[in-house]
């Protein structure tokens, strides 16, 4: 899949709507939700998170966090974005939503709001799990949103290395970053079930191209394919085009005046709040509506998304259906920056129908 990021125009696609394992491309959504939570004041870059046993037990790629250890959100973000650390991703999800399952529901509500209707997330890290699926088109859409919705954070994805809390970690995408002119992101992904995945972005002059590949056979062949797709994009994209930024998703959040680091749940997504008719009894409290939405999501999740044939066009996933049943809300203020780090190592294997 290749798009002109400025306009969103599709310049090339092949099997772009086939549902496959996204692997660590998942962390793009994990980070998107975390950036949004920071903007809402649910936590800050300096909030110190206590690592759970579950997060510490995640398999590699990982930062090596220990249960009970405390670490700042900014360092978890760096580890998830640059090293693709699974323990950091799980810890971030738990910090935002209290549990990884609740965080996955929030990821799905966000995906729905973006129009990612063929994506279902089950976890924050992307390790293979039944029903955890996405498409090249949906991940390309997510990459575009990351660039336009959180530009102050976007420099994270082009760093060859960074400091993740006293430990230097190296970018899993540094081979492409170092070899393709203008490349500045975004995210790699690998599992045996997925193959070698990549959502890549490059800028030359006023042009920006995003290209996505699922199911590469190796880092080298995947990167070569992505480079060809980026070249195709720059050749096909017009020199001048009006920038048409994607509409920022209208996300809904419950407003608990919580202490830093406390969980704040989000409810579903709708375009506006309905005005109910006068009733003899009080309307349910917000937290009741949130619990109802999450409960419905859990119930619908039993309907086995994993059984959907790969090339079939299924209805929206269970979490997506449930998401439309809950609440509405606002748009945040200025975004904070994340600081730098420096230097390089070989991309750790994190196999596969190639999808572009």
Structure, explained:
This protein has 356 residues and is α+β, with helices and mostly antiparallel strands. The chain has a single domain, classed as Beta-lactamase, CATH 3.40.710. Helix content is 33%, strand content 13%. It has a 5-stranded antiparallel β-sheet with strand order 2-1-9-8-7, sandwiched between helices. Strands 3-4 form a two-stranded antiparallel ribbon. A two-stranded antiparallel ribbon has the order 5-6.
Summary, kept brief:
The protein has 356 residues and is α+β, with helices and mostly antiparallel strands. The protein contains 10 helices and 9 strands.
The CA-CA distance between the termini, in Å, is: 4 Å
Structural class designation: alpha+beta
Identify the overall geometry: globular
User: What strand order characterises the main sheet?
Assistant: 2-1-9-8-7
In the predicted model, the low-confidence regions spanning at least 5 consecutive residues are 254-315, 318-351
Radius of gyration: 19 Å
Domains (count): 1
Largest sheet: 5 strands, antiparallel
Number of helices: 10
N to C succession of SSEs = EEHEHEHHHHEEHEEEHHH
Helix content: 25-40%
CATH class: Alpha Beta
Please state the second-level CATH architecture. 3-Layer(aba) Sandwich
The pLDDT mean sits at 82
Quick tags:
two-stranded antiparallel ribbon, 356 residues, five-stranded antiparallel β-sheet, alpha+beta, 10 helices, Beta-lactamase, single chain
Write the layout of secondary structure elements.
Blueprint: E1 2-4, E2 10-12, H1 26-39, E3 48-50, H2 53-56, E4 70-72, H3 73-83, H4 86-97, H5 100-114, H6 136-149, E5 161-163, E6 168-170, H7 174-179, E7 183-191, E8 195-204, E9 207-216, H8 219-236, H9 286-301, H10 318-323
Antiparallel strand pairs: 1-2, 1-9, 3-4, 5-6, 7-8, 8-9
